[in-house]
Amino acid sequence: MYVKQISVFIENTPGRLAHFTKLLGDNNIDLVSLSVADTTHFGILRGIVADYEKAVKLISENGYTVKLTDVLAVSVPDHPGGLAEVLETLSGHDIVVEYLYSFVRNAGDHALIIFRVDKLDEAEKVLTEAGVRLLSQDEVRGL
Amino acid sequence: MEQVYWNPTMETMPREQLRALQNERLRDVVRRVYEHVPFYRNKMQQLGITPNDIHGVEELHLLPFTEKQDLRNNYPFGLFAVPQSEIVRIHASSGTTGKPSVAGYTSGDVDRWAELMARAMYCANVGKSDIVQVAYGYGLFTGGLGAHYGAERVGASVIPMSGGNTVRQLMLMEDFGSTALCCTPSYALNLADAMEREGITLDRIRLKSGIFGAEPWTEDMRRRIEEKMGIDALNVYGLSEVMGPGVAMECMAKNGMHIWEDHFLPEVIGPDGKSLPYGEQGDLTFTTLTKHGMPLIRYRTHDLCTLTDEPCPCGRTHVRMGRVMGRTDDMLIIRGVNVFPSQIEHALLQVPGIEPHYHIVVDRVGTLDTIEVQVELSPSVMSDTVRDLETLERKIVNSLASHALIHASVKLCQPGTLPRSEGKAVRVTDRRHLQ
To answer: Is residue A105 predicted with pLDDT exceeding 90?
Structure first.
């Protein structure tokens, strides 16, 4: 049960990020989750949108380089130690987390967190077995 | 196509006979410029020669060179050899600074130009039943009209698109079934990239030949375009001062461009100003044999290349020029090392997934030259992790060090952000001169 993440290359020059987010805004595309990784020269904006097909078309037509990546949308109990439990489950199975970031919104007593891992299938299996809930693409669309 | 050559008599003329024709035409053009162009009469008088001293190609070395600066000094019409009333067309170079260099054509010149571009079309297997999409700019720049007249001359159906408007170019390419494309190689690559982006597969287009020129490009780039578009990509050469596209054209052997020697007399000049033997690299220089509007004697193009008279499998007897390796005025001297943009392009293309959309920025920090190579990031190498992109940057740095022997910093850029002008890619910004 994967979710599609968009990753967009953003040059590290003033106004780029503003230009990009305005493009999404003007086209009524809502980022339900977002993180930016940055270096001196460039940044990678990662995010989850409801309609990723529409977003990819729009973004590439406007000259941005974009890539789709499968990630896990994990529903983590919103109490101290909740995240640690999930991470321990993964590390216990030698699954490496490349990065993670949280959703803008949450679902009641659960926080929604995006996980990018090296072994996707295995991660899905061990988390499900550990009783951790993963969100589907359709559920993400509804957020 | 049953006929291989547009003009079999001229294109396959035995070299001895061709030399006799050149001798006769050289005598004629020298007489014309001496009588009608004060600039040439003065120069020849200073050198103590008259048209009677020039019997043929053997005496070519006695004649003075013409430099681009001479065109500027005689701006705009000072080098015309006919009254302005005989001029039917004026073109000008795409110089970005100061006054352009101007060229005037008589109706005979325009006619001969069409003939030479018609030969070029046949070289690319383009004839009467073809549909030719001309995506060179139309206007003062010679590319658009040059290709247009040549394609019309062979009887093809011409689509005068001019440059730009990529999405529309692709729509008409598909709907009209264009079989040949004329544009700059960097624009051809842009179109190929846009095809991928729009999901236009090769079975939807009928393109088979590309006639690409007006800027230097590499063999790697040819392969890239040929694969992406499923075509034969051929190199065409020309410059507005000498005529425009069609001074030389590659045949299907793809091993150098035939210079139409019944109209242009080529030489390769070394640093000491002496004409070099075939095979040696130097400054390509042309004497126009049949131009009446603005004939030029030993015009220095400053394009670096070699000539060969070895027989070509296509049967054409005219000498071939190799790829332009750079321009003597494009050459960068970085910390004392000579670097041509074409070397950098070659190094970039050794890195899988990298497209030849790049821009070179040279600067000086303190007393040290720095070079930054900006490379557009294509979707195929995009990653969601910083680590992957930094690895990519390092690979490019290493390739530049091993293939171009330069230590450059590399900056990944968004597609379409690097400078382009009139469909030609702007390859170098040298900030050292600005300080």
So the answer is: no
